[in-house]
Write a structure and sequence with these properties.
329 residues; BirA Bifunctional Protein, domain 2; 3 domains; 14 strands; alpha+beta; SH3 type barrels; 9 helices; five-stranded antiparallel beta sheet
Length: 329
């Protein structure tokens, strides 16, 4: 009911909406309306109430609900169902739980903070309240299981493109990180439930350090992590950035799943790669090998030349840039 009242108020723009109109349209008492208005105010909305005129939204809080993001969205299904939390352990964990319960394709779980955020290999991800974008997308792609890893590249390309639209120069550390000035600002964690020849669902978690301050970055991460605000000196619009990621992601995702075309995604990853031409470490099952990143293939593998001069195609695994490039985790 709170969401319906808020929608009525926001749809009215600068016009007041009378309590009677809300009562008639939603079938609730005036007392119930007042109760919900107070809850809306507690969420951070400034509501003007004038006797005999009604209610009007004066200002909205910096929160990532569907009501706040929708005006920036041009998607058909990605993010059309946003499940918003003020605080949650992990958006990926909740998204997997919802996916198991048959939650719709394209649903986005988003939270103002995560108390148990995680990245690849179970690493912790610091996710302070109202400072970043912590969201997970539920996907049910009709593709072969072997191609599931390419969805991560689509997420990386979408995040990279959306961030650059905010006039911040970043690069992609194949396959799942966005880096600025040698430090990580965005990580993507894709988890799958499926069988050898069938994908039940994918959950793609996207975590972006948007408006974190220096003091929000733990001491042990200051050499490898940063935020868009720290690097640009500007406070970023989280709503616009989140919506742009979803908009770009849906476009790239449709092209891949419907037409089998991942060219635009690969072009973004290749053009903005921080690895190509660099000496890197390939870390797999605790073993470290040195190689040179040569290119990204048309199907998304990282092409490397190993120390014996042999060309290899790396599908997945832990890839680390050597220490001289800052971010090496």
């Amino acid at each position: 009911m709170k969401e319906k009242i808020l929608k009525l108020l926001k749809d009215s723009g600068d016009e007041f909406v009378s309590g009677q109109k809300i009562s008639d349209e939603l079938g609730v008492s005036r007392a119930a309306i007042w109760k919900h208005i107070n809850v809306i105010k507690e969420d951070g909305y400034e509501i003007e109430a004038i006797s005999r005129k009604g209610y009007k939204v004066i200002s909205s809080p910096d929160i990532l609900t569907f009501e706040e993001i929708k005006n920036f969205l041009n998607t058909k299904y990605i993010g059309r169902n946003i499940i918003h939390y003020d605080s949650i352990g992990s958006t990926n964990s909740k998204a997997k739980e919802l996916a198991e319960a048959s939650c719709a394709h394209g649903t986005v779980v988003i939270s103002e903070e995560q108390t148990s955020g995680r990245g690849r290999l179970g690493r912790n991800w610091v996710s302070p309240k109202h400072k970043g974008i912590w969201m997970s997308i539920i996907l049910r792609p009709n593709i072969i299981t072997q191609n599931a890893s390419q969805i991560t590249l689509i997420g990386a390309a979408a995040a990279q493109t959306a961030i650059m639209k905010m006039c911040v120069e970043t690069s992609i550390k194949w396959p799942n990180d966005i880096v600025i000035n040698g430090k990580k600002v965005c990580g993507i964690l894709t988890e799958m439930s499926g069988e050898i020849d069938h994908i039940n669902y994918l959950v793609m978690g996207i975590g972006i350090n948007v408006n974190l301050e220096e003091e929000d970055i733990p001491m042990d991460l200051k050499d490898v992590a940063t935020s868009l605000k720290i690097e640009s000196g500007k406070c970023m619009d989280r709503k616009l950035l989140a919506a742009n990621i979803l908009n770009i992601f849906e476009e790239l995702y449709n092209e891949f799943v419907q037409n089998g075309n991942i060219k635009e995604t690969i072009d973004v990853c290749r053009k903005n790669s921080m690895l190509i031409g660099k000496e890197i470490q390939l870390v797999s099952r605790g073993k470290v090998r040195i190689a040179k990143a040569i290119d990204i293939s048309d199907s998304g593998e990282l092409i490397v030349e190993n120390e014996q001069g042999i060309i290899e195609y790396i599908v997945s695994g832990e890839v680390s840039v050597r220490g001289m490039y800052g971010y090496s985790k």
